[in-house]
Structure to design on (371 residues):
């Protein structure tokens, strides 16, 4: 694994809401919370937040970063094409990636070593581990679901057919007893044991993302401007919301209090899950947002964009978490002033210089980046 030193750049609007992550090329140790995802060219295409890990990939190279601070831990080298999908196993000791070089790869997430290469006949778009990490589910442009026994990687995988177009996402559900998969405009539910389709639903526009929430067995699907919530057991629709612009990704808070979504208008939206009320919208990215994900503890969420950055946002502004530190200064007369959030080693004048980035003005296509 190639390792490097990270440069974390704070950005301020009314409050410090996110960190822009960029990297240089010095060696660094391998410790701490991490993050995994994938990208096309410089586009950040998918992000995964695990209990102790966060990873994303840039320029087709999956990258490992500490989830709460953004520190770069290393880069997985081995794919010869754009990486379309990435995932981590339950204890974040292994990573898997899906790529345009017709392969899926399994990696040691601690050492960065490539463990297994699984050859396919077309572009691979999605990978997902079972809870015990013994099996890997893949899906891609050849319209087939494949289940690999990772203890016998040389053996032929179990294959499930039925999709009529390229598979965009494939996920285990219901304690790995069922499979959820999506192609262009169809979402399907499969029985793992019999490899048969249980149910299929059609949606009005092309599916842009799909998230499985095991707590409550909820499936989050986005297509067009719609964010839809379905039962993962039956595919029956629970509710749906409409966003102001085309949505590319959405994520439900672990406590199901709210959800976040991002898409073609460069903005992140937060909604009340129960009422559908828009709670806030945030600017920061300079390109369409392709992926958003909450951390398992719900304290932050990550967004990946076509602008080549992955940003970490606090769910509740003003709390001390990771690099965010809540400072409550005392005013004259003993009264407490409004809490503010600061970052270690960041001068106030630097934050003031960056305040304009989160304004309501239309962003330039070539924004100025300040150290």
């Amino acid at each position: 694994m190639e390792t490097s030193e990270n440069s974390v750049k704070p950005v301020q609007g009314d409050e410090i809401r996110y960190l822009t992550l960029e990297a240089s090329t010095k060696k660094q140790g391998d410790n701490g919370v991490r993050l995994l995802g994938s990208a096309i060219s410089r586009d950040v295409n998918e992000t995964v937040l695990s209990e102790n890990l966060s990873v994303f990939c840039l320029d087709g190279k999956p990258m490992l970063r500490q989830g709460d601070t953004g520190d770069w831990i290393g880069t997985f080298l081995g794919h010869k094409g754009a990486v379309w999908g990435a995932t981590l196993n339950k204890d974040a000791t292994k990573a898997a990636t899906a790529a345009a070089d017709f392969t899926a790869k399994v990696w040691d997430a601690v050492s960065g070593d490539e463990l297994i290469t699984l050859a396919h006949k077309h572009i691979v778009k999605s990978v997902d581990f079972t809870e015990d990490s013994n099996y890997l589910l893949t899906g891609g442009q050849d319209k087939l679901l494949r289940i690999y026994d990772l203890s016998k990687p040389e053996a032929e995988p179990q294959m499930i057919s039925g999709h009529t177009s390229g598979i965009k996402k494939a996920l285990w559900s219901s304690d790995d007893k069922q499979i959820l998969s999506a192609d262009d405009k169809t979402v399907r539910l499969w029985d793992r044991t019999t490899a048969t389709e249980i149910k299929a639903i059609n949606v009005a526009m092309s599916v842009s993302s799909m998230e499985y929430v095991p707590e409550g067995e909820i499936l989050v699907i986005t297509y067009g401007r719609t964010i839809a919530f379905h039962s993962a057991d039956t595919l029956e629709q629970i509710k749906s919301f409409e966003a102001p612009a085309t949505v590319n990704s959405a994520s439900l808070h672990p406590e199901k209090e709210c959800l976040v979504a991002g898409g073609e208008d460069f903005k992140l939206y937060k909604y009340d899950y129960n009422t559908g009320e828009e709670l806030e919208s945030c600017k920061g990215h300079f390109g369409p947002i392709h992926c958003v994900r909450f951390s398992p503890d719900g304290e932050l969420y990550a967004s990946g964009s076509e602008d080549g950055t992955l940003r970490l946002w606090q769910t509740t502004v003003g709390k001390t978490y990771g690099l965010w530190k809540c400072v409550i200064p005392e005013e004259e007369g003993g009264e407490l002033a409004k809490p503010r959030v600061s970052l270690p080693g960041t001068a106030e004048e630097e934050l003031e210089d960056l305040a304009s980035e989160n304004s309501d003005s239309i962003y330039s296509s070539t924004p100025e980046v300040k150290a």
Remarks:
- The chain has one helix and 32 strands.
